[in-house]
Design brief:
Helices cover 49% and strands 0% of the residues. The chain is mainly α and 67 residues long.
């Protein structure tokens, strides 16, 4: 039976020398709150994977570098 909702796999081939530039362009297209939210999400997922729980307290340090 033919499924009309079948998904297809899409692959984009990127040259290694372009990968860093594309990553930077992607993240610079996001606003600071979106970038920070993703950093929090990744940190939470890492702690859950590593320890099975997220710590009650984490010191909040923000360092901004000039580009």
């Amino acid at each position: 039976m033919n499924n009309p909702r079948r998904k297809s796999l899409v692959i984009n081939q990127i040259h290694p020398e372009d990968e860093d530039r594309l990553d930077v362009e992607y993240w610079m297209s996001k606003n600071p709150s979106e970038r920070l939210a993703e950093a929090y999400r990744l940190r939470r997922n890492y702690y859950l994977w590593l320890n099975g729980s997220y710590p009650d307290k984490i010191e909040r340090v923000v360092t901004q570098r000039n580009l």
